[in-house]
Amino acid sequence: MAAASRWTPVAGVLLLLLLLLSLAANPSRAATPARSSIAVFQLQGDVYPTGHYYVTMNIGNPAKPYFLDVDTGSDLTWLQCDAPCRSCNKVPHPLYRPTANSLVPCANALCTALHSGQGSNNKCPSPKQCDYQIKYTDSASSQGVLINDNFSLPMRSSNIRPGLTFGCGYDQQVGKNGAVQAATDGMLGLGRGSVSLVSQLKQQGITKNVLGHCLSTNGGGFLFFGDDIVPTSRVTWVPMANTSGNYYSPGSGTLYFDRRSLGVKPMEVVFDSGSTYTYFTAQPYQAVVSALKGGLSKSLKQVSDPSLPLCWKGQKAFKSVFDVKKEFKSLFLSFASAKNAVMEIPPENYLIVTKNENVCLGILDGAAAKLSFNVIGDITMQDQMVIYDNEKSQLGWARGACTRSAKSILSSFP
């Protein structure tokens, strides 16, 4: 969802109401660093038709479940919040309700980082709270205040419950108030900034600042914090490049189609699990479309489908991408920042089959989305472990099945 985002402080109009909330005695938020250094979560969702992958996070005391959209393209985790809510969507679970003493003050280091990370020198309207406003490239937004509460994390031997800082969103701009049914309760921000959950876990000595995900084409998959299950071989590693938005980027890559250069200049690439599809800027997008069309047989006819802009139908209805895979060729991205660093993008990593039994291109025109860089989204990251190693400032990927359960992964450790 969030290929790009920005934060700016906004007026804290609901401070008094938040301070009047006294729903329960606030539990101690001290977390004892765990000897176990990995947390693993089961993922749900898919590229099509759900449109995203999400995790169940248990938050509060007593802990209650919330569905969070997994987003490596932004830093801030937030929940739609009854503070009370000014503008919220219908969500899968009852709105999160903060306690009176859960507010994060303006002087808190994470508040400072949240604001200064976007070049803003504005002060908080009140020293007692930290206001935020985040906007995404698809025009969705969340406005609220930072709070701190316990997250229940499934570790090897037991769950731990560290206190973590996140957003209590009381104003979400997605349609009219309550008119849009949201598939999740909020966002799990896993970007490179210090307010990111995985950065906070590192600061508390709970896990290393490493995360990864494995998204299955069959739906579901797993997400992990820490480096214990990172493979020691078969991983393609590239150094993280510095980008203007501080995104996870392997740097510039040269694009090939069926191992032939498409003749476009090297393209800056960003990995973003919050984006369902992959986006290429104008020149590489047009080059890919031309190459694909030039290689198709006459048995495929271009058709209109509400799911995506470019689709084809065959002489027989398609049930899966594998019914039509032979008609398409693999794409390749070759990164100059590391030796032999190539990401293969086979047809199943850029095509979907819709409910209308057409096959559609899951690489979209970034220019239409007003993107200035290229985004590798969920569709292209499926069926491979993608690793974001902030400790060593490197990104990695290794192809493999993503069907293992979180419980079986944790049980494989002594």
UniProtKB/TrEMBL annotation:
List, in alphabetical order, the Gene Ontology terms for molecular function in this entry.
aspartic-type endopeptidase activity
Identify its protein family.
Belongs to the peptidase A1 family.
Sorted alphabetically, which InterPro entries does this protein's record hold? Aspartic_peptidase_A1, Aspartic_peptidase_AS, PEPTIDASE_A1, Peptidase_aspartic_dom_sf, TAXi_C, TAXi_N
Residues at the active site: D71, D272
Keywords, A to Z? Aspartyl protease, Hydrolase, Protease, Repeat, Signal
Annotated Pfam families: TAXi_C, TAXi_N
Please state every residue range assigned to the domain named Peptidase A1.
53-398
One GO BP annotation is:
proteolysis
* Protein name, per record: Aspartic proteinase Asp1
- Signal sequence bounds: 1-30
